[in-house]
Design brief:
heterodimer; A: about 110 residues; mainly alpha; 4 helices; B: about 230 residues; 12 helices; about 0% strand
Amino acid sequence: MDNTYLIAGIAVVAAVTALLRFLPFLIFKGNKPTPKLLVYLGKVLPFAIMGMLVVFCLKNVSVMQAPHGLPELIAGVAVVVLHIWRKNTLLSIGVGTVLYMVLVQFVFVG
Amino acid sequence: MKKVLKTVLLKTLPVMAGYLALGIGFGILAKSSGIGVWGVFAMSLFIYAGSMQFVSVGLLTGGASLLTLAVTTVMVNARHLFYGISMIDSYKDIGKTKPYLIFGLTDETYALVCTQDFPPTLDKQQYCFYVTLFNHFYWIAGSVLGAWIGTLITFNTTGIDFAMTALFITIFVDQWRSTRNHIPAVAGVVLSVSCLLLFGAENFLIPAMLLIGCVLVIGKNAIIKQERADNG
C-alpha cells in the first residue's frame, strides 16, 4: 500500500473521529453554566446509552439461524443473574465470558 | 495515588481482556492486508476507535477515496456525539487532561466514566484520566502484538469479545438498581431493538440515537416528575 495514501487515510479517519468526540464540548464550552437540558441529558443519557450499547454488541446475532442466539442468551442471562446475586463485576464478566467461549467453541459448533 | 491506580486496574480488567483480544484480531487483519506494524500502531494511537479501524482496513485496502473514508467514519462513529453530549457537565471542570479524556472517549471508556456517583474517597479527575490512559494502552498493545506476532497465537480466542457485552450488561444492571426511574433505560433498549429490526444491523444506530434523544427530551417533564415522586 502506498505510504502517502495510508497516512492521509489514517489522518482523515482520526480527524473525523476526534471531531465527533469533541464537537459537543466545542459547542458548549466556556465558563457559562451548562444549559439545564444538557444537565438533564447528562443524568438520563447514560442509562439509555448502556441499553443501546448492549443491543449494539448483539446486533449481528441471528435469532432465525442456528444457534438462534442461544449462546448470547445463556451467557447474557448468566451475567445478569450472577451480577444480581453476587454484585461482583469481575466475577460476572469473567464467568459470563468463559461460559460464552465454551458455548461457541464446544457446545454450539456449527 | 496507589489506591486510584488499583481501582482503575480492577475496573479496566474486563476492558483489558476485550481490547487485547480485539486489538490482536485487528493487528492480524491489518497486517495481512498490507498495513505494516507502524501503520497499525499509528491507527490505534491516533484513531482509537475499534469498529471503525476494522472498517478502515477494508476501505484502505480497496483504495477508497478520502471522502468515502470521512463519510463512513461519520456513519460508524456518530454514537460518540452522544457520549460527548452526556459528559459535557461531568467533564466541565475536569482539569488540564480534558482534551485527552475527550479524545479517548470510546464505548468502553465512556461506560466506566459515565457514572454519576463517584465515591468521595476517589479523585474523579485522576480516575477518569487513568481509565482513559489504561484503555488506550491496552488497545495499542493488543493491536501491535497482533500485527507483530499475532500469527503465533494458537490459543482459540473465539468469543472472548463477549467480555465487552458482559461489561455493558453489568453496568446496565448496576444502573438499573441505582434508580427506580427506569424510563431512560427501557427507552434505550426498546428503541434500539426496534430500529435494529427496522433498519438492520448496519444502519440502526443513528435512527436509534435520534429517537432516544427525542423521547428523552419530549418526555423530560414526565421523567423528572417521576424521579421526584420516587425520591420524595
